[in-house]
Sequence to fold (473 residues):
Amino acid sequence: MNRWKQVGPWFLRHCRKPVALTVYASVLWLVLWADAHLFFHLAPLNHAIGFGLALAVPLSWARYWRPRSPLLYRGILSVGFLPLWQFALVVPLVFSAYRLSDAFSRAGVAISFFIGLCWVVWAVDRKTKQLAPSPHPQRTWNPLRRWAWYFGRRNPKLWQSTATLGAYSALFLVTFLIFNSMTGCAIYESPYGGGEEERLKQVVRIQKVVKKKYIINPYSSVLFNPPPIDDVRLQLLEETVHRYKVGQGEGRGAGFSGGTSRGKVRFIRLKYNGGDWQQDMDRGADLNLLTEYGVRTGHRVSDRPEPMDIKRLRAFPARKSPPMVYMTGQQKIQMGEEGIKILRSYLLDKHGMLFGDNGGSSGWEGQFVGMMKKILPRVEPITVYLDHQIHQIPYPLPKLPYVAKHGRTDALGWVVDGRLVAYYHPGDIGDAWADGHSGVAREIWESCFQLGVNIIFYAHAEYNKWLEATKED
Fold:
């Protein structure tokens, strides 16, 4: 206690700037955490600003310790790589560059491994030099002593270095797997409201009014660099006496009776091994569809799509789980038994729905159907005809739209208890949602947007019915 009375004031007096920056950064991170977890504002720009400002903390401490302790200086710089790595991960997300973010993620793991290896080698070498061999070395198990019996008499330093590398690699791998398997807690809440499950009247014209400055017609072109969703409101130019809300249940405004005032419709894309799961994300496909859904239905939506590992679905509780997740690609789907169990639980226990979109390969249908065979071995796929609710509400579709057919020309569905738990589309409609619509005609990309809106709405409406039917009195 007396020692702290002497050292404490000196430390605070000489480290005033680093301490102040650390406090400021901590307060900022508390604000960002509350914003993300309490209000669902998950904008990548917020995270980029947070990690960018967090970089000032290790830099300030490194500058302070550089003339005083070279060892602490190097240690702080090593730890400072972590916020730098996270900053490099989130900045590309601001510009929807998901492939670049994924590349930085992989590179960061490799760099972290190398930095840790350097420190381990330095620490082992230093300790070994401190433990000078005695004139009469005895049999020992201590790996920090080069004369440990299992290193042998020939090239003991080589074997010690090899053992250090092996032990560190194994420990790093175990740590990586532990952190990678941690999902934390997550919740999904739909926007509160109500409405009717009816077809949209074609006499109602929809326009987007952005801050009352200019109007964007959604049927003229997709929204390149769309404005924040909260700044986009729906303006219905009514040409008939009848008007209704697109939604499900009783509640004020368009939405779902089982939702909350802070809830938003979100678009979650599943990440998986073996294929190009991120197809069309860099071209704004997910965000464009999400924006169009919000404008056409009046529901509050998130301002960014969310790529998500399959194992993250475990973190959502049963009644706070995503009503729908999206999956696309054109290569091989590699999924272990753990992923199969997670998806089965998500579809059945959490009342979710899987939307599969063939991204451009005749073989991907077999991959998707084979995966579903493992997930639901007792459920056979059926043809989802045009008279099904998912093709009629809110937009009645005269035919199944697609950019390019890959095998079949109709949709497949997996039905459990009268509900579509999985929907497979054969025609790469994600290309139509992307910036530029991949050059297809307006009639095609407009129909693809309508089908996307229908699928999202169907999943949320069915989920809301389940919430209402199972809620506790």
User: Anything to note?
Assistant: Residues 2-96 form one domain.
